[in-house]
Hints:
32% of the residues lie in helices and 27% in strands. It is α+β, with helices and mostly antiparallel strands. It has three domains: 27-123, Lipocalin (Beta Barrel), CATH 2.40.128; 129-286 and 374-459, Rossmann fold (3-Layer(aba) Sandwich); 288-370. The strands form three sheets. A nine-stranded antiparallel β-sheet has the order 4-3-2-1-9-8-7-6-5, with no helix packed on it. The chain starts with 26 loop residues before the first strand and ends with a helix. Residues 1-21 have low confidence and may be disordered.
Amino acid sequence: MKKFLITCSTLLATSVSLPAFAEDPLGDWTGLIEGQIRLNIFFTKTQAGQYEVAIVSPDDGNETVKADKVEAGENFIRFSIAKHNSNYEAKWDETQKAWLGTWTQGQQAKLKLTRLDAKALAAQVKKRPQEEAIAKSPRNYSSTDVSFQNAKAKISLAGTLTLPQGKGPFTAVVLVHGSGPNDRDETIFDHKLFLVLADHLSTQGIAVLRYDKRGIAASKGDYKSATTFDFADDAQAAVDYLRTRSEINQDKLGMIGHSEGGLIAPMLAANDPKLKFIVLMAGPGVRTDALLLEQGRLLGLANGESQTEVDKTQKVFREAYAIINSGADDKTISEQLKAHFDQAEKNGDLAKGAGAKHLSRLERPWNRTFIKYDPAPTLAKVTQATLVLNGELDLQVPAKMNLDGIRVSMKANKNVVIKELPKLNHLFQTATTGSSAEYGKIDETLSPIALDAMSGWILQQ
C-alpha cells in the first residue's frame, strides 16, 4: 500500500453533537495504516459538547491536521478531511477494545484504533541524536543568517552561512535541496539533513551556505509556480552571493545537490566553468519519466502493494507520462490526461476519485517540466571534478540504474568518482529496506560514512 500523506496546514474542525453510546471516543487513540504509517487520533470536546478530531502522523512529518466533519453514533465514528479527500469510518469492537474501520485517501486501508496512553505517546517521540548533539556541543565555526538576491526572479532568498574558525579564505559549498517545499535544513520527518551536513563540513574546515527554497520559510517568491529551472536560478544566486564574500576561496567553491539538487548541480557546472566541483547525492542519471516509473514500482512493492497493483499503476503512469511528453500544448495535455485517468478509473486501474488528484498534481508546472527532463546531455558537458554518491537501498533514485546512466554520460570526464554506499537509503541513512516508511523511524539523520566521503573528497579538491 502506498504511503498515505497527512501533512499540510491545519484545517478548522466542525462537528455534530453526539448521542449517548456505549464507547465514548473522547481521548487519544493510535493505529497503523497497513502496519507502517502510524496515526494518532485525538478526540476532544468543545464547551458546547461537540466533538472535534485532530490527526497526527509521527511517521509522516508530525504535522497536526484537524477534521472538518465529525459524526458519531452508538459504537460508530466517522470523520473526514475534505482538502485531502480522506475519511475514516469505524465501529467499536468490545472484544478487542478497539475501533475497527477503514481509512480512505485515494486507496483504502484497514485501520484499527486502540487507546493511546501517555507512556505510549512519549515513546513515539522521535530521537534525533545528531541534531541533539549539534544543539548541545560547542561549535568551532560561526553560524550567521544571511539573505541574497535572485536578480532574474527579483526575489530575496534567506539562508544560513557557516564559516570555520580562522582567517580563511575557506573551501566552500552551496547545498541544494531535493524536490518538495524544503527549508534550509532540508527538514524531512523531523530529520534536518542539511543542518547535520553543514555542521559536519564546517567542523572539517569547509564553509557552507544553505537556504530556504523560494516561497518557503524566510525566502520570498512563489514556490508553487516554480520549476527545476527556477530552482537552478536560485542555486546560481547562492553561488554568486558566496563570490561576494571575502572569506570564501573562489578557486575552491563547489556545490552539493541532493536528489533534485543532483539535477541542478550539473546544470550550474555546465554553464559556470568557474565552479570548482560538484557532489551529487542521489542525483538522477536517466530520463526523469523512466526514473519516476522505477521509483513508483520499487516503493509500491516495498510498501506492501501486490505485483498486480504495481503493474496497474505502472501502466497508468507510463501512458500519462507519454501524454506529457507528446509535444502537445498544455491545454491538450490536460484534456488527454483527464480522459486517460477517467478511463483508468472505469477499468479499475485507479481507485474512484484518484484520477482528479493525479491530474491536479500533473498539472503543476514543476511536474510537467520534471517529467520531460533528460539529464544526460547536461552531465556530458560537466568538466569539473565530480563526486557521485548513491545509497545501495535507495528506492527513489535507484543506485544501479542512475549510477550506470551517470557513468555513460560523464565518460569523457576523467575526474569523476562514483560510489555506491552499502545499506544507505535515499536520505543516506543506514536502513533495512530503503522504504520511505522507514525514513521517520530511523534515528540517524545522515550516515557518518556518507559525511566522511563528502568532506574527505572535497578537502582534496
